[in-house]
Amino acid sequence: MSYDPRLIPFTGQHEGFVRRAYRCPAGALTIGYGFTWGSKVFRDWWTSRHGRALQPSDTIEQADALYLLKLMIDAEYAQPVVKHAPSATPHAKAASIDMLFNCGLGAQKWTWFKALVRGDVRDAARHLKVTATTAKGRRLPGLVRRRTEAAAIMEFDRWPAWVKAPRTFASKEIKAVMPAWQLGADDFAQGVSWLVKLGYLADSGRSDRALISSATRRFQQAHPQLDTDGVLGRATLDQLQRVIDLKSKSAKGSAGTAAGAATGVADQTSAATGYGDLILYASLTVFVVGGIWLIWKYRDELALALRATGTLRKGDRT
Length: 318
What we know:
Elements: H1 7-15, E1 18-23, E2 29-32, E3 35-36, H2 40-50, H3 62-84, H4 90-103, H5 111-117, H6 121-129, E4 134-135, E5 138-139, H7 141-156, H8 171-176, H9 185-197, H10 209-221, H11 234-253, H12 256-273, H13 276-284, H14 291-297, H15 299-309
Antiparallel strand pairs: 1-2, 2-3, 4-5
């Protein structure tokens, strides 16, 4: 093995395990440790097991997800690093592979990877630390932390204290060295802020865990693809970001008159369903340049909004 074995729990812990398929902020169906249909390894494994493509609400067992995490890293994400930076240290390779896993193979075209290839690890770490820390122009604290940790690993072989190397790469051995998963404090605070912004939580309840859990549960109930457990985890955080992004896009692209016309309907519905603002967005997106793309990308959210008003019945196709 050419990379530090601590990579597997490091990447897995940052991605977080999600048992039930959901749509990530970019709209891709996601399951396990950030697996999407874009991975050939995952695609082949899933098709061999199920004979069809991944579908919303499909589930995966953690043991299978841990097996796939290692398999995908070896077969897809380690290879470009080993090929183009063969003399890099195992810890520098590990940090690079984590970046490719998180951002996709296209990240090897970026400045940080070019620096690694020419052997300038210090410059590679400097660029890696500040690369891909935002989404839709919004700096995400969890990504900032992940890049900061990866840069320290790359340059100094300095790992977070919780990261331990598994004895073997059997799923049970990898799981044994991974702490009980929860969102980092920075990601959790971001999720709480989004619950407040969407009206599920009062600003005064930011530090009340019981109120946060209740608000999270209400949000999850409005999104049937999520487990309704009141836990602010990876899938729920990503879904919150997805709704926030939809709200932002709709607000920027809306026509003033359309907004005025739709607001009344939204106001009447929001108190009862928590979905009033999404109804507003559904009304506005038809006025956005390129609105067809926007409606397709957020079709799941818009369908939920329409169902909240009875416009679309459960079982109708969108």
